[in-house]
Recover the amino acids of this structure.
């Protein structure tokens, strides 16, 4: 199994107020490169649609050494590192031009039946594939702990621009929602060094969202819910610096 790589240069519209790549954009990069690699392996989006199945992001464990700056070039790589009965484990690594790590992640993707939304076995549903057993983050993808209290909350409706081809909120939006559900002075003073994310249920366009946050020093715990009935869409933990 060879790694799939992509060279990128940070554009001005991708930068945050500090002049570096926005944290939420790394999930777009992960998803795009994973889709490219899965297609090359013969088990990507088009293959899945033709058979009524698809890969759905279930978990991320992310670590950030530093974010690349405006006009800085870096290389992103991905590869499958393991698989279970119904999930595939995929790694991501970004390095700068000197080969030093920028950010990296381990992720878990569930294979589901698109009609029933239920998991299906990998064996027999997608072509057999090899793995490269190199993990970027040693994690068992345990659920991040729920907030024990609500120190801050944010409420908003789902926007149409957040809906993807599957007619639900794309998973790249949940880390952004959680990262904004902190006080403004906290958000302006700190950046994210670690993230653990568990996706539970997809939100749709008609949903109203509430994010409840517990702040304990530089650790924040978030639960993203439907405002009307408390259905949990995602659980998130950040460590900030």
């Amino acid at each position: 199994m060879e790694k799939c790589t992509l060279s990128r240069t940070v554009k001005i519209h991708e930068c945050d107020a500090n002049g570096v790549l926005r944290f939420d954009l790394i999930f777009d990069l992960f998803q795009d490169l994973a889709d490219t690699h899965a297609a090359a392996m013969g088990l990507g989006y088009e293959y899945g649609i033709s058979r009524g199945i698809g890969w759905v992001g279930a978990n991320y464990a992310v670590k950030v050494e530093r974010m690349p700056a405006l006009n800085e070039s870096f290389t992103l790589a991905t590869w499958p590192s393991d698989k279970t009965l119904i999930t595939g484990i995929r790694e991501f690594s970004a390095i700068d031009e000197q080969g030093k790590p920028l950010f990296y992640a381990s992720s878990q993707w569930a294979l589901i039946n698109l009609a029933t939304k239920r998991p299906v076995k990998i064996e027999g549903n997608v072509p057999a594939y090899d793995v490269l057993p190199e993990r970027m983050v040693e994690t068992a993808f345990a659920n991040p702990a729920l907030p024990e209290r609500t120190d801050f909350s944010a409420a908003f409706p789902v926007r149409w621009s957040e809906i993807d081809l599957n007619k639900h909120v794309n998973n790249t939006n949940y880390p952004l929602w959680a990262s904004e559900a902190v006080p403004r002075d906290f958000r302006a003073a700190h950046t994210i060094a670690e993230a653990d994310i568990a996706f539970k249920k997809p939100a749709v366009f008609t949903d109203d969202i509430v994010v409840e946050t517990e702040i304990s020093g530089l650790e924040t715990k978030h639960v993203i819910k439907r405002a009307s009935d408390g259905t949990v869409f995602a659980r998130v933990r950040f460590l900030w610096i």
